[in-house]
Amino acid sequence: MPSTSPAGTFPAHTPAASQIFTTVLTHGPLTRQEAARRAGLSPAAVTKAVRPLIEAGFLVEDAGAEVRPAVGRPANPVRVDGGRALFAGLKATGDELIGVLTDLCCRIRVARRVPLPGRTPPEVLPVVADLVRELLTEAEGFGVRVLGLGIAVAGDVDRTTGTVRRSPFLDWRDVPLAGLAEEATGLPVTVDNDVRALTVAEQWFGDGVGLADFAVVTVGAGIGCGLVVHGRVVSGAHGVAGEIGHVPVVPDGPPCHCGDRGCLEAVASDAAITARVREVTGVPVADAADALALARQGNAGARAVYARAGEAIGRGIATVANLLGPERVIISGEGLAAYDLFAGQIRDAFTAAAFGSAARCEIRTRPLPFEEWARGAAATAIQSFVGR
């Protein structure tokens, strides 16, 4: 499918230009002096980096919003023109494709959901192409180009090559998704693990802005963890850093699909909770929503299952805090629908298992719909476009 919005290029691919643009994008509006301080660059380097970005319309100087620095003449702050470009983001689940169109500041302008007829690449790629075509049509109304597409998939994803090595929910192995999607849509494509994509969005546009070290823990169909260490999202040598879903938290606990026992995912994922509620209560709950409803009705057995899940999540978060010492852990995911049932257990188990100063880590919850995961995919496309 030829793109109606041909890909543009970032006007200055020098490290300084990318660094200054990212600094203004995540912290702006900023004066040149403040941008230089935050980026650790000289004023001359900032001036040189800013000029082509303003000329290309990616940065705008707010002449009417003067800020007087401590010394010298008034300085005009610069900010990113969010409407200068658009980006598409897709989140693939086992059953549907969620798509968003965002501006350059990753604000969602359009959101769509479409069911998947099947899970094989030949069944999924036409849906990707159709949904992107719909988003490109919507983009025409904004009068600016779509400059990139991000796709977020659960599982083991090699962002460098755009290959989905393994995705359990789609049952994919070694699928060169970036190349296939580029051919289908005509856009530059970035493919990443869905939790890492969500972490990028939190780092650049959310609760992680300004933090050098933090983590995002997601609970729901699986248990995931995105890590930011010294200001960079960490994937590790083999791309699976942060895989806390398979950290054992319950000795001799229930079997996990990975082959081990007592993994966090085997205790606290939606499927694990649902199965355990059926076992404990004898009530044939069909899914996580039914299990949650039963617990909210006051069923003691169901509530005990959620309490155990909360304890396991708290121990898993403490493991992250003990190993990496993040300033903040952000808990998200569809599993937060049950947060009121296990919030106390998460806090208590974290406090008990966190060692020393690691217990000072702030725990923050951020319930997010799947559209926000698609926004995370768009954030990776913005990141790739800027060259960061």
UniProtKB/TrEMBL annotation:
Q: Which InterPro entries match?
A: ATPase_NBD (IPR043129), ROK (IPR000600), ROK_cs (IPR049874), WH-like_DNA-bd_sf (IPR036388), WH_DNA-bd_sf (IPR036390)
Matching entries from Gene3D superfamilies are given as: 3.30.420.40, Winged helix-like DNA-binding domain superfamily/Winged helix DNA-binding domain
Cite the Pfam families for this sequence: HTH_24, ROK
Q: Which SUPFAM superfamilies match?
A: Actin-like ATPase domain, Winged helix' DNA-binding domain
In terms of CDD domains, this protein maps to:
ASKHA_ATPase_ROK_CYANR (cd24073)
Q: Which family would the database say this protein is a member of? A: Belongs to the ROK (NagC/XylR) family.
Q: What is the designated name of this protein?
A: ROK family protein
The species this protein belongs to is: Streptomyces tunisiensis
